[in-house]
Each structure stands twice: as structure tokens, then as C-alpha cells.
């Protein structure tokens, strides 16, 4: 997915003089992030952070399809809205349960999601799509 989003120029990418293609670079970046996470958190905390990121991503994918692609892909609005509501309920329930046992991970997850959204908004504001950008081809 990271390679796809990078190819669409929706996430920043630099080669940093690394050999190989975009997929190999994405794998290296993912491994670095995984190593950093394992230094600071145990496996259950990493899984909890992943759950929050995944459900938030799922909500926004459904929202994007609902808002921009619903007619093109012949998606039913009630199914998309139901999926968003159910995802939101599951996310709130998970955060509620997690807050009772490990509030720190809830704050780390919320901070992480906000940082990703802010960084993405900043990147898209400053970076116009260019067909011949050497960092993405």
C-alpha cells in the first residue's frame, strides 16, 4: 500500500542514494519504523497502536469512496455509512477498553494519527503532482 500511495505521489519519498526500486525502499522504511517501535513498545502495545491506525484508515477509505467514488464504483451509500458507523463504534469501544488498562497507548495512538494527518496535509499543500518527478518514478 505504501508503494501505491507513493506512486500516486500522496506520500513523500526520497531515494537517499539507496539502490533498488520503490518497493524495496518502502520495505526498508517499514522495517526502520518497526525497529523503532520495538525499541519503545512491547508487542501488545504495538498491536494496539496498529489497531487504532487501521480502523482510522478504514474509516477514511470508506469516507473517500462515499464522497468521491460512490457513483463510479456503484457503491450503495447505506453500506458505506453503515461501515463508517460500525468502524467508529469499534474504535470507540477499543479506545475505551484500552484507556482503562493503558491510557499511554491511547495518547500515543491519537498523537500518531494527528501527526500523520498534519504531515500529509503539509506535504500535499507544498507538493504539486508532477508526472516526471524522479523521486516517484
Automatic annotation (TrEMBL):
Keyword set includes Cell membrane: no
UniProt keyword annotations, A-Z: Membrane, Transmembrane, Transmembrane helix
Signal peptide: none
Keyword Transmembrane helix: yes
Sequence intervals crossing the membrane: 21-40, 46-65, 77-97, 103-124
Gene3D superfamilies reported for this sequence: Amino acid/polyamine transporter I (1.20.1740.10)
Official protein name in the record: Amino acid permease
Lineage summary: Bacteria, Pseudomonadati, Pseudomonadota, Gammaproteobacteria, Alteromonadales
Amino acid at each position: 500500500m505504501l508503494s501505491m500511495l507513493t506512486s500516486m505521489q500522496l506520500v513523500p519519498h526520497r531515494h537517499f542514494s539507496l539502490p533498488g526500486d520503490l518497493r524495496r525502499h518502502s520495505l526498508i522504511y517499514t522495517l526502520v519504523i518497526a525497529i523503532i517501535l520495538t525499541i519503545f513498545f512491547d508487542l501488545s502495545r504495538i498491536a494496539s497502536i496498529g489497531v487504532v491506525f487501521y480502523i482510522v484508515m478504514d474509516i477514511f477509505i470508506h469516507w473517500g469512496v462515499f464522497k468521491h467514488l460512490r457513483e463510479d464504483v456503484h457503491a450503495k451509500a447505506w453500506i458505506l455509512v453503515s461501515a463508517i458507523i460500525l468502524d467508529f463504534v469499534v474504535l470507540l469501544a477499543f479506545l475505551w477498553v484500552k484507556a482503562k488498562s493503558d491510557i499511554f497507548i491511547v495518547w500515543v495512538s491519537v498523537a500518531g494519527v494527528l501527526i500523520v494527518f498534519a504531515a500529509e496535509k503539509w506535504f500535499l499543500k507544498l507538493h504539486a503532482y508532477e508526472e516526471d518527478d524522479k523521486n516517484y518514478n
